[in-house]
């Protein structure tokens, strides 16, 4: 029978690790004292246990090296209320620090085999943080942010949360929020759709819009799916919008078959509408079409040549569409950006959810 350790450490970082990292000069910027008058002065009260990989030859940690469930939750709150809004460093550096420390938190949850009631309050804010960061950093270069690693950890956390809810006897206030985030992150996934339908059916009011959107994806009606996802709550819409480049690629490929003609063309202005290009993103549509080797031609119906997308049309030909081209990198969506801005306090949103 396995025996699990129960942590007794009531600090964000065990004393032994604090002493070691100060001695070895391994203190992170966010663990230094901003009021010390000199750069790089360690602040023991700001130090947070860092993630270390498990290894077969490593000794089993002692109880005083593992944080209590209460301290794990307190550390999540500290990271999201103190470090996340700290403007002294760009967001990708804040993300990197918080991601590592949250990974250590998740590791200690497993080591202690915490109960469902202890896991959910810790894991739910981590899920929201990863959703928000995946969107916030979607335009960042790979040197600053690796979307695949973030997506892998977000998927693991979402599935763990869903399993925890299945073990609960009663309903949890955040259950449907997490289910919606799971469907939003996995928009278009048959596995996610089947999983939600098996648990709740197709008529659950809290999930109806998201299930409908999933079914539209399976029918290939990505235009309806895009319209629907823009009606999600801000965080759900943000994480779902990461799939917009895939949807648009599939739609352009469909149009290359449906609207194939050597004579007729399709106005770029119409594509702008059905593909969901808004605000500053409209200026990217022509280049996005060229990315897939689609031919743009100037309209000859008297439209002003300097009138943006209105002056251009696309000539679709099945043979010309470059199916070998990968989908473009996601971009921030103006409507979602505005909705997130209206949230004002992002830390509060990530800790308590947002329903709007």
Automatic annotation (TrEMBL):
Pfam families associated with the record: SAC3_GANP (PF03399)
GO cellular component terms listed in the entry, alphabetical order: centrosome; nucleus; spindle
InterPro entries according to UniProt: SAC3/GANP/THP3 (IPR045107), SAC3/GANP/THP3_conserved (IPR005062)
UniProt-listed GO biological process terms: centrosome duplication; spindle assembly
Membrane-crossing segments per the record: none
Superkingdom of source: Eukaryota
Domain SAC3/GANP/THP3 conserved stretches: 12-296
Protein name: SAC3/GANP/THP3 conserved domain-containing protein
Lineage, top ranks: Eukaryota, Metazoa, Ecdysozoa, Arthropoda, Hexapoda
């Amino acid at each position: 029978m396995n025996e699990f350790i129960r942590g007794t450490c009531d600090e964000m970082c065990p004393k032994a690790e604090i002493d070691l990292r100060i001695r070895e000069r391994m203190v992170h910027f966010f663990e230094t004292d901003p009021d010390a008058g000199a750069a790089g002065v360690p602040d023991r009260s700001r130090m947070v246990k860092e993630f270390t990989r498990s290894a077969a030859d490593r000794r089993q940690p002692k109880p005083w090296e593992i944080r209590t469930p209460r301290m794990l939750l307190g550390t999540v709150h500290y990271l999201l209320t103190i470090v996340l809004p700290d403007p002294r460093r760009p967001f990708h550096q804040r993300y990197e620090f918080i991601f590592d420390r949250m990974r250590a938190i998740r590791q200690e949850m497993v080591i202690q085999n915490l109960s469902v009631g202890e896991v959910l309050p810790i894991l739910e804010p981590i899920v929201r943080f990863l959703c928000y960061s995946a969107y916030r950093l979607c335009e960042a270069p790979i040197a600053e942010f690796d979307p695949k690693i973030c997506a892998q950890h977000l998927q693991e956390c979402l599935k763990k949360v869903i399993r925890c809810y299945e073990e609960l006897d009663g309903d949890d206030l955040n259950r449907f929020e997490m289910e919606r985030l799971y469907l939003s992150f996995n928009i278009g996934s048959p596995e996610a759709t089947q999983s939600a339908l098996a648990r709740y059916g197709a008529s659950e009011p809290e999930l109806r819009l998201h299930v409908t959107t999933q079914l539209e994806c399976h029918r290939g009606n990505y235009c309806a799916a895009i319209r629907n996802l823009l009606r999600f709550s801000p965080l759900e819409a943000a994480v779902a919008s990461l799939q917009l480049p895939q949807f648009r690629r599939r739609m352009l490929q469909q149009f290359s078959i449906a609207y194939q003609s050597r004579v007729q063309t399709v106005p770029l202005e119409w594509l702008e509408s059905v593909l969901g290009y808004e605000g500053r993103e409209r200026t990217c549509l022509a280049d996005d079409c060229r990315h897939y080797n689609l031919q743009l031609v100037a309209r000859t119906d008297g439209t002003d040549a300097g009138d943006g997308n209105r002056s251009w049309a696309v000539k679709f030909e099945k043979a010309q569409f470059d199916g070998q081209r990968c989908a473009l990198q996601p971009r921030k969506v103006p409507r979602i950006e505005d909705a997130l801005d209206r949230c004002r306090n992002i830390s509060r949103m990530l800790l308590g959810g947002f329903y709007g």
